[in-house]
Design goal:
Layout lengths: L13 H6 L8 H10 L2 E5 L6 H12 L10 H13 L9 E5 L10 H16 L12 H16 L3 E6 L3 H6 L4 H20 L4 E8 L5 H5 L6 E2 L14 H7 L1 H11 L3 H12 L14 H10 L5 H4 L4 H10 L12 E2 H5 L9 H6 L8 E2 L4 E2 L1
Parallel strand pairs: 1-4, 1-5, 2-3, 3-4
Antiparallel strand pairs: 6-8, 7-8
Helix pairs in contact: 2-4, 5-6, 6-8, 11-12
Amino acid sequence: MNNLRKLPIGVQSFKVLRNDRYLYVDKTEYLFRLVQSGRVYFLSRPRRFGKSLFLSTLAAYFLGQKELFTGLYLEKAEEEQARFEQRTAWEAYPVLYLDFNVGKYTDSGALNERLHIMLCAEESVYGISPSKEEQPFFASRFEKFLKIVYQQTGKQVVILVDEYDKPLLQTMGVNETLNEQYRNTLKAFYSVIKTCDQYIRFAFLTGVTKFSKISIFSDLNNLEDISLRNDYAGICGITEQELEQNFEPEIEALSIAEGLTRSKTLAALKKQYDGYLFAKAGVNVYNPFSLLSAFKAKDFGSYWFSTGTPTFLVNYLKEAHYFIPDLDGKVELNESGLDTYRAVTENALPILFQSGYLTIIGYIKEARLYK
């Protein structure tokens, strides 16, 4: 029991995870299906659920980093698909990675500064130097970047966006004027993904929340939202099958530390960390941050909750006037209500679900209602 594996708590780089031999639950089958079946996707999942790591895995694939996928589902699947399509396997593409996790957005100009920094870093690689007059027009710079990269490389660009909604969440209920400015800026910026479709190989956007299409993604009618899809319910998080297949040494060590049998340890893990359901007929998943933290500490703690409730959610609930115990198993929502939320709404249920504080416990098929 002295040779437990390295657990990737907080590891967001797929390259670091693989090269440094951290334990990895293979999610590359989901990646393969996404790449083969569509081009522009959106995924909403709670914080600390593995969204950043999945984006990093996508980046590694599109950069042609074959060596990182040794022994994983994608290694064989990519080779077989390439032979079937009579193309070169592991073809590399230019990757534009936009990470909004970095920075604080409560100050005016913070979003513009972050967009400028991210675009400058990518523009410099291809010798693009926007004039001082061009710099504040981020949508135009984004469009110009995609066109020039395509002209220089002959290849379409892959766009990966991490936590697209962080600037909006940090200003929601705090500074509505700035929040509105951010919505307008981001709406124009993301609309480029539609207008420059011919220059884009693949795009994947993630966030905690799904802002209403009329506020952010109204121009992005080619966006495929997989957040509530049954076939992608397990894309982030750890399923019960993955738990038992991948974590046997950790389960045994935790059992010894707690003085429990294996079956009682699994039951305790399920009670404490399982139960997240993101689709009406999908698979339940464990919170990965909490599960890995429990294995590392050999203790059933409240790890995810102890990292802090987001400020935006605290403010939102104060305004909504909900008595939280009344929500436990006693509310129903249709799909449009669960799928979409706007910052101006008085209904806190969708944001509680998207933030990971409520989950689906059932689906009434005849009424098309989630419980």
